[in-house]
Structures are given as C-alpha cells and as structure tokens.
Amino acid sequence: VGSEMCIRDRSNCARWGRPNCKEDKAMKTQLLKVNEDSIALGAKLIREGELVGFPTETVYGLGANALDAEAVVKIFEAKGRPQDNPLITHVSCVEEIPPLVRAIPAAAKKLMEAFWPGPMTLILPKADCIPNAVSAGLDTVGIRLPSNADARALIRAAGRPIAAPSANRSGRPSPTTALHVLEDMDGRIPLILDGGACQVGVESSVIDATGDVPVILRPGGITPEMVERVLGHVRVDEHVMSPLREGDVARSPGMKYKHYAPKAKAIIFSGAPEHVVAAICKRYDEQTAKGERVAILGLDEHHYGGRTFLSLGSEKRPQEAAARLFAALRELDERGDTVALCEAVDTAGIGLAVMNRMGRAAAFDIEQV
Is 365 a residue whose pLDDT tops 90? Predict the structure, then answer.
C-alpha cells in the first residue's frame, strides 16, 4: 500500500529551513507487514536518518535515530509537534542504556528489573550524546525498553537507539493500528511497519526516577499501585489530571499540550453511574435537537435507549477501555460526529491512564453530576 503526497505545509516551510516549497519531492509511504525483510528495510532507513512508523505494545511509534539531531527534527516536522515537547528513546536491551545516561538511580534499577521489557519509560539524567532535540533542552531523557518483539528487532537491526513519540499528527488520537498511522502519516514518512493491533492501547507510564521519590508524570500500563508494590512509595504528578500552568516546563511527553483529541467536542461526565447515564441522555437529546451529530463513549453495563453508543468495554475489565479508547476517538472522526459524551471511568489501576488520555482529549471539560 502506498500513496504519494508532498510532505509540505506552506506555513511551516521557512521554519524548517526550506523556504522554497517547489523544491520538495513527493514521498511514497510503504505499508509493509513485519518480517525479516521489512525490518531490515526499516533499520536501513533509520541508519540513513529517515523516519519509520513501527509497532510497540502501547501505541505505534514514529522512530528516528536518537543520536542524529537532524533525523530527530524530522519527527517534529512530520507530526507538527512543538519542539519543547520531549521524546522517548527506545532501546532493545538494558545493556544499551549506560552510554545514553549519566547515572541509573537505585529506584530506577528496581523498576527496570520489575517491569522491563514493558510499557514503562524512566526519566534519567542524559548523557551528552543525546541531542537537545530529543530532550527538548532538558538535562534528562526518557528511556524505554519495549516488550514488543518487533520493536526490539528494529532497534537491534538499526544498531541505534530510536527516539519515538506516537505516530500520529500532533493533537490527534494516538494510533493503535498501522492503518491509523497511514491515515496521519501517508506521504510524510517512507515506511510503516504493520505488526497488528497494539495490546496495551495507551502510551507508556513515564516515571521520573531522578529525585528522592519517583514521580509518575504520565500514567500507563504500569500503574501507581504496581510501582508502590516495588518501591513502597511513589508520587503521582498533580498535572496528570490537569493542564500545566503557563510557563511550566513539560518534563514528559503528554503533559503540556492538548492531546489525543477527536474533531468532535468531547465532554466527560463523572459521578454515580445512574446520574451519569441520565445526564448524558439529556445532553444527547439536547445536542441532537440542535442538529449536532452526537455519540456516547461508555461502558457496556450502561444503557442508552438506542442512542449512538461506542463501547469502551466492561467496567469489570478496565484494560478494555485502555485498549479501545484511541480507536473509539478515531471512529468519532470517521463517523463525522461533532459531539462526544464520555463516561468517566474508575481511576484505580490502569483507569488513571484512561482518564488522563480522555481528560486531555476533552481539554479537561469534566462535568460532575
């Protein structure tokens, strides 16, 4: 599968040092199933300073050689991503980490032993070899060892650590399938590796391990409860469920900007289930009467009398909401919905990650009912 499209945005050409758009060449994006040959091609492109979309257990990543500042800048261009938003550097084994960091604190070592390979990123003091483009000028870097075998195979074959945010246009819902990546990145990158649907469905937990008490900056599949069982203590950053204040520095991806948003106006309803259902039904009917195209994102146990409903799974299986959320947000756009009425979920366990993503998608428009 491929298409050709000029990878230019005329408003940004000068910003990226390309004042003459006519000189841009069209790029063909290949979508290839993961196998030995496609991994080898992806590795070659990474070594040559190009971008590759690739699967992980969390979401699909948009990868570049983490040690090549010029290659990393292409990530920001392809995504339309603000350059003060740091990236995560992915490795294929623990042995690749020491050259990338100045130190590995004791707490970080315990977390590595407990949760790697897996959906956890550790913030560590960065070595000089990490370009400022990766760290957004910070003296720290996020390091992750993914459990997805295809991701690790690509990193090993490239022989380079791979810097990678999610492989979506900035602000859009993160991609959990290769076709989601193609939707956002067709014509912007040369290759997307298709490794099937992601298992976790939300980005990695980001844990700052540089201080006395580790801090969860972004929740994910490794929950605060899981970290506490290993370390005995952990703090959840206050901005997990609120935007940063003006002038605050983003120490992790997913903190500073509105993220994961569908085109529809998203509103979250929180409270007792019966009150949430009643409030959503009332708002649905009001908005529909105004000519809006409305959909409800909720749990299977709740019933909405034939109104348009997109399932986030069962409240008995919170992992389902994590795995389904981004696909549901993209489905809103495919359907042409203009309003999305969302049920809040329990913030215990992985529910905190779901609410963090849903909250940012809704710009924290949360109504207590």
Answer: yes
**3-class state of residue 361 by DSSP:** helix
Which long-range CB contacts under 8 A does 210-215 form with residues at least 24 apart? Answer: 210/105, 210/123, 210/124, 210/125, 210/140, 214/107, 214/108, 214/111
Contacts of 86 (CB under 8 A, 6+ apart): 134, 135, 136, 138, 141, 142, 250, 251, 252, 253
**DSSP per-residue codes, 244-291:** PPTT----STTSSS--S--SSEEEEEES-HHHHHHHHHHHHHHHHHTT
Percent over 90 (pLDDT), the chain: 83
pLDDT (average), residues 236-247: 79
Q: If 0-12 CB within 10 Å is exposed, 13-18 middle and 19+ buried, where does residue 197 land? A: middle
Query: How far is residue 122's CA from residue 263's CA, in Å, rounded to a whole number?
Result: 32
CA distance 249 to 231: 26
Torsion of CA 261, 75, 353, 118, to 10 degrees: 150
* Residue owning tokens 């500073």: 256
Mean pLDDT value of segment 51-80: 97
Among the listed residues 283, 111, 312, the one whose alpha carbon sits nearest the alpha carbon of residue 207: 111
pLDDT band with cut points at 50, 70 and 90 for residue 260: confident
Picking from 94, 112, 318, 38, the residue whose alpha carbon sits closest to that of residue 201 is: 318
Instruction: Record the tokens describing residue 122, joined without a space.
Output: 């550790």
| Residue 1's pLDDT band (cuts 50, 70, 90) | very low
pLDDT over 90 (residue 27):
no
pLDDT of residue 190: 98
- pTM metric for this prediction: 0.88
